[in-house]
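Practice record 12: protein with calcium ion.
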Amino acid sequence: AKHSSDDSTVVFNTHLETELSQQVKLEQQLINALDRRELTVAFQPVIDARSGDLCGVEALARWNSESGPIAPDVFIPVAEKAGLIGILGSQILEEAIAQGSRWPGLQIAVNVSPLQLRNRYFAGGLKATLDKFAFEPHRLTIELTEGVLISNADQARRSISEIRALGIKVALDDFGSGFASIGSLRQFRFDRVKLDKSLVANILHDAQAAEVLDATIKLVNALGVPVTVEGIETRHQAEFARVAGSHQLQGYWFSKPLSKEELTARFLDNRRI
Ligand code: C2E
Ligand code: CA
Ligand code: CA
Ligand code: CA
């Protein structure tokens, strides 16, 4: 009993060290993966709600590490903390645009971390990539999360203005999952708002959830901004979102994220699903 508190301190420290060293290991693995350009891009179809046609894709980073696949929800925060998100983001962007330039007419959406926007060369780098592949700026949408609204970093705002001036579209991602307000939607005038999948998840069994989804779609439309509903997993959810006024739909009901080969084979000979 005399030593019990000492023992627990040791156990705690060991646990902390293990977590730390795992973090460091992951970071080192990620550095190597970026060096060797091992990250790939998956493309998830985005569907026009009225016609049912494919209208675009969202590019999603994929990492098949030596020890198996690691999810973006795990490695994106590691990249952000380690100062690697700029490199990671530009590799994903380049791959998405290179591929997008072989899919004429298709809209390509790319996720961008708020941290990337704090780099004053961000918009310039974006333009260089578009020029390299002769990719029309209006076919690119940058998806931003509300982190960019909360931090009132001047450089982030400047980057957004520069991106817009290039003719690139800007979407607010994951709306309804956090704090983004009606005020911020009006102030930023996004080209599109993507509703978070948590808003869709329970609408079949929870009447209030269904009303909230319906009201949120109508609210964003009332601000003059087109809506994409994400996380559509059932026919019921797709139909509900369409009737409520969502212009675009995305989710496993239509397709999971696909490799470029799968997407080309499944969608691009005949654009209908
Ligand atoms: P997100 O931008 O909200 O992307 C949508 C996520 O939902 C993707 O997860 C997608 O695979 C998943 N999803 C699509 N349809 C469904 C559905 O019907 N049901 C469910 N339950 N999930 C669905 P993923 O690919 O694991 O990405 C997770 C997050 O990681 C993304 O969320 C995004 O925030 C981040 N991320 C992914 N790629 C990048 C990137 O290149 N750069 C940055 N900065 N973040 C990225
Ligand atoms: Ca997204
Ligand atoms: Ca999202
Ligand atoms: Ca998300």
